[in-house]
Amino acid sequence: MDSTPGGDMETCNEALPDLSGRTALVTGASDGVGLHVALALAGAGAHVLMPVRNRDKGERAAARIREAVPGAQLSLRDLATRMARPAWGDLQLERRYRPLTAYARSKVALGLFGTELARRSAGRGRRLRVVQCHPGVVPDTGIAAAVRERASDTGRGSLARRLGNSPAQAARTALAALTADVPAGSYFAPAGALQFGGPPRLVRPPRSITDPVAARRMWDVADVLLSRVPLVERG
What are the φ and ψ backbone dihedral angles of 189, each rounded to 5 degrees? Predict the structure, then answer.
């Protein structure tokens, strides 16, 4: 990325092809890893859609990107969701909520959905290629703040700080998944110890997200949940 960001915002410095004329939707783009993914894509010329829950926070993130990339093509979209109790057991942890368990299961759910999306898209003539990734451990974000605070003084927290990625570094796995010429179903993860940090590399996807039966079931659950979400278009 050639653009130099304003202020003290770190860049991931990932070499990207010219993405002019392409559209990228980046979730979580108002902060952390998602912000750096959006910054890199905007710097490569993509039109970046930023669905955000907090409009003010999204506007501030967009301003930071425009400061770094004058003329960046950005579109904010408000998210309005209403989640019902899923048909698949206690997928939302409504009976017993634990932050770390909820976070881990949400990642597995996304991975299973991606696996089924790849299966449904294969061989149907669609211009869709599903490549998944994970950013490693990123201590300096606002995700799971309470959990991070409790872990900060433990051996686990110290290990994460030594081996993990910064948000800008962590964005590289998503950017590799977006732009690398790899087969559908590929999976990128950090190359460092325990996949905590480091540059992106191709690895075997976790078994937890490649079960075809579980993937189809997750697709069906998502279909039920999405049928109860009103479509809202603002701004």
Answer: -150, 165
